[in-house]
């Protein structure tokens, strides 16, 4: 794995999230019916940070949930390892809510497709809006984000690594080149 | 890059053959599936397009319904075969029956059989997954897994616990699977029964044996009460039911002398007034019905894991 460029650092990540928080408030005209759902693993931490930012802006607590999409993936039989099924933890009713779905990197769109199916099995939201820290292109499905931290055009053999303080010990987004043609699934 | 796990078995035959890590993986996976079973829409699409055949050579309601619900909540299709209404009556062998089910393109056979080792034989002869739902006196892995799951949920851990199993140990596959599973996870297991119902070799499995119920309950964090299997052997010298109740029955009086919050478990069906009193069966420490609920999540985990392992193996051989 060869590190080619640092795309975001701690400051720019936080700035992006603050901007997205403002955009969420603006687009939804307040946050009365807004809740946030993060996709495991890094989407969860980004969701928590967005909720904290929104609280600073609007002085309101936002419900945050955790979505595990393993059981909805379309590539379970294709991947070499066996993913561990973790719990979905959404302790509130999403019906009639504006659900902000949060993930770190948007790529093929297949994770989001799985997340949409998983969410809809839990209720009927008024809207589902997608927030991602990085959009790297190469969509394979008709899915687009509503809020983007940064658009980064990439080549397919490149990978985006999002590192977050909560699990990786530091905040940064880097572009890496895969050494060889290993089975690089997001 | 990814979380790798140790589950590579296309079959679930018994806890004797599993490592501690594999047992923990099933329990953790079951924990995630339990959340699914608590939803309004209790269904996920992960086994869509798969077919599960419940092949039961022995009567069962609880286990069969539990496996059927587990498969349906994973979106699999389910077919139930009871031996009384099948070609078994016409003399077909177990392996031939299995091969026919495989030829019908089923993906998993869940089998209960009255012969110990039947599930292993079937698994060896078939490419598809086999899940043991009880084979003779040998093992009943998903029952022990749901017992252990319930215990862990209630007490937070298994390691260091004192668990007593009381009842017909000799004829009990539930006892055997529990002993394997609990000892692997670090619990101390005591079995308690009339002397003739304690099988030889139980100590080699890692359990302590006693014929004294007071001793078995002393210091126990949980007691797993087994049914007396009167239907298995009518001729043998079982103590009279009343006498058994007097000497081994789990009564309020015995409960009051045990640890204050001792958990009471029973795999069912319960015989009130024989191995357990009605009051104890319904008391707050009893988790008998929670065991039934947890059974679905545990079986979902088992069906999911064997399917994943089977499909990965299939891909490897195709490459």
Could you provide a short overview of the structure?
Chain A is an alpha/beta fold and about 190 residues long. Helix content of chain A is about 25%, strand content about 30%.
Walk me through this protein's architecture.
The complex is a heterodimer of chains A (186) and B (319). Chain A has helices at residues 10-27, 42-58, 110-120, 165-168; strands at residues 2-8, 34-39, 64-67, 98-106, 127-135, 147-151, 158-163, 172-177. Chain A has 186 residues and is of the alpha/beta class. Chain A has a domain at 12-25 and 32-74 and 83-155: Rossmann fold (3-Layer(aba) Sandwich). The longest helix of chain B has 31 residues, at 288-318. In chain B, strand 5 (162-166), helix 6 and strand 6 (188-192) form a beta-alpha-beta unit. The model of chain B has no long low-confidence stretch (mean pLDDT 92). Chain B has helices spanning 20-37, 62-73, 94-103, 118-125, 141-155, 173-184, 213-217, 241-248, 252-257, 278-281, 288-318, and strands spanning 51-56, 77-82, 108-113, 129-135, 162-166, 188-192, 207-210, 222-225, 263-265. The chains are: A alpha/beta (186), B alpha/beta (319). Chain A binds chain B through residues 68, 70-72, 76-89, 117-118, 121-123, and chain B through 2-5, 7, 25, 28-29, 31-33, 35-36, 39-41, 43-46, 301, 304-305, 308-309, 311-312, 315.
- Give the CA-based shape of chain B: globular
How many H/I helical runs of chain B? 11
By CATH, the topology of the domain at 12-25 and 32-74 and 83-155 in chain A is Rossmann fold
Which range does the strand content of chain B fall in?
5-15%
User: Which structural class do you get from the secondary structure elements of chain A?
Assistant: alpha/beta
Largest sheet of chain A: 5 strands, parallel
> What is the residue-averaged pLDDT of chain B?
92
